[in-house]
Amino acid sequence: MALYCSGIVNGKSNGVFDPQGKATRAEIAAIIHRFLEYGK
């Protein structure tokens, strides 16, 4: 929930938050990028 509130994890394109769903390579790359940028 903290990652969602901080904007690091946004959910799927249709606005659904699916914690048990599978993430694509691009989605994981975006999450890692936002996580690293958040720490700066």
Q: Could you give a short description of this structure?
A:
With 40 residues, the chain is mainly α.
What this model shows, in words?
The protein has 40 residues and is mainly alpha-helical. The chain is built from two helices and no strands. It has helices at residues 2-5, 25-38. The chain is globular and about 30 Å long. The chain starts with a helix and ends with a helix.
Question: What structural keywords apply?
Answer:
40 residues; 0% strand; single chain; mainly alpha
Strand content: under 5%
Poorly predicted ranges (pLDDT <50, ≥5 residues)? none
Structural class: mainly alpha
Count of helices? Answer: 2
Please give the share of residues in helix.
40-55%
Mean pLDDT metric: 87
Tell me the number of strands. Answer: 0
* Element pattern in H and E: HH
Largest β sheet strand count, sense and barrel closure:
none
Q: First CA to last CA: what distance?
A: 21 Å
What best-fitting shape do the alpha-carbon axes yield? globular
Radius of gyration: 10 Å
List strands and helices in order, with pairings.
Elements: H1 2-5, H2 25-38
